[in-house]
Design brief:
Family: Belongs to the complex I subunit 1 family.
Pfam family, one: NADHdh
Distance between the termini: 42 Å
Shape: globular
Number of strands: 2
Order of helices and strands: HHHEEHHHHHHHHHH
Strand content: under 5%
InterPro entries: NADH_UbQ_OxRdtase_su1/FPO (IPR001694), NADH_UbQ_OxRdtase_su1_CS (IPR018086)
Main location: membrane
Number of helices: 13
Membrane topology: Multi-pass membrane protein
Helix content: 55-70%
Radius of gyration: 22 Å
């Protein structure tokens, strides 16, 4: 039985959206557990065993809280802001290759929602739209603290998107493509880790990582929602599930940023000795080549999620370790350090390519 390609893509996209929401939901639980561990205290332990039902309790609380509209607020835009932020966060995950191909008979399935040859550009474009949700929500709230938080978010995103984009130009120079799937497959030579882009682009990765913290509004770059200065920033006036959408969008963006870093710099679904394992299964366990390749695909997907979860943990670890930057320090870092560094990285990469050191 042949399954239509569009039908399979629709299934994958829905699964990716569902997984993104599930990870975002339980990231709130993980945030509290990591914070409790780093601060040597007890984390959530009331709702269910080990507090595992705490995210569900939070969701029920968000859905049942009173809907509140500030006086003088633009009601339509007040609702539209968090919806746009959440929609763009979910859309950016559609082009990420979460695995290689699965083949059953004549059916070949790609573990990716949409394969486009401008996948990297798609992620950047959609993520850039997310700041409009913050801007709209902050302006529509009719609150000075919300507006200041929205302005901060806009200028912060513009500043750090430049350095992030320049850091990826070096990867584009090496790979010659904007397709996330092609970039991943190019790192699968012999299945060895030293073909991963983190080896070729360590400086580019560090720049991208710092910019990812700023793009997701995470500590030490959480100036748009700085509680000590702006009460709650752009979502000060929000309550109920509208506030939940803003919070979940942040965690979905962390998941997407972690996935993009894993795909671009850490081999994506590739892992060391994958081809040796496939050949061993065929030669010594009498597996068919098709079954062995399907197993490698499944293992690669699981290991990719392992890489993603490591970066999500790193985001949380940094939040509860480093203090918040001042706003002038934030902008100085982006414009006077990261952008020049990313330009130097492009020049170094070009020189190494011309010298034949990087291929």
């Amino acid at each position: 039985m042949e399954i239509p390609v569009l039908g399979w893509q629709a299934i994958v996209i829905l699964v990716v959206f569902g997984v993104s929401l599930l990870i975002a939901t339980y990231s709130t639980y993980a945030e509290r557990v990591v914070a409790a561990f780093l601060q040597d205290r007890v984390g959530p332990d009331r709702a269910g065993p080990y507090g595992l039902l705490q995210p569900l309790a939070d969701a029920v609380k968000m859905f049942t809280k009173e809907e509140f509209f500030p006086g003088g607020a633009n009601r339509a835009l007040f609702v539209f802001g968090p919806c746009l932020a959440m929609t763009t966060a979910l859309m950016s995950s559609a082009v990420i290759p979460f695995g290689n191909i699965l083949q059953f008979g004549s059916n070949v399935f790609f573990l990716q929602g949409i394969e486009v040859n401008i996948g990297m550009l798609w992620v950047f474009g959609v993520v850039s739209l997310g700041v409009y949700g913050i801007m709209i929500g902050g302006w529509a709230s009719n609150n000075k603290f919300s507006l200041l938080g929205a302005i901060r978010a806009a200028s912060q995103n513009i500043s750090y998107e430049l350095a992030m984009g320049l850091s990826l130009i070096a990867v584009l120079m090496i790979s010659g493509t904007l397709s996330l799937r092609e970039i991943t497959l190019q790192q699968s030579v012999a299945g060895e880790w030293h073909f991963w882009n983190i080896v070729k682009q360590p400086l580019g990765f560090i720049i991208f990582l710092v910019c990812a913290f700023a793009e997701t509004n995470r500590t030490p770059f959480d100036l748009p929602e700085c509680e000590t200065e702006l009460v709650g920033g752009y979502h000060t006036e929000y309550s109920s599930m509208k506030l939940g959408l803003f919070l979940f969008a942040e965690y979905v963006n962390i998941f997407v940023a972690s996935a993009v870093m894993s795909v671009i710099y850490f081999g994506g679904f590739n892992f060391p000795f994958q081809y040796e394992l496939r050949d061993w299964l065929v030669a010594h366990q009498d597996w068919s080549l098709l079954a062995a390749q399907n197993l490698i695909t499944i293992l690669g997907t699981l290991l990719l999620f392992g890489k993603i979860f490591f970066f999500i943990f790193f985001f949380m670890w940094v939040r509860w370790t480093l203090p918040r930057f001042r706003y002038d320090q934030l902008m100085r870092l982006g414009w006077t350090i990261l952008i020049p560094l990313s330009m130097v990285n492009i020049l170094i990469t070009g020189g190494l390519i011309l010298a034949g050191v990087i291929k």
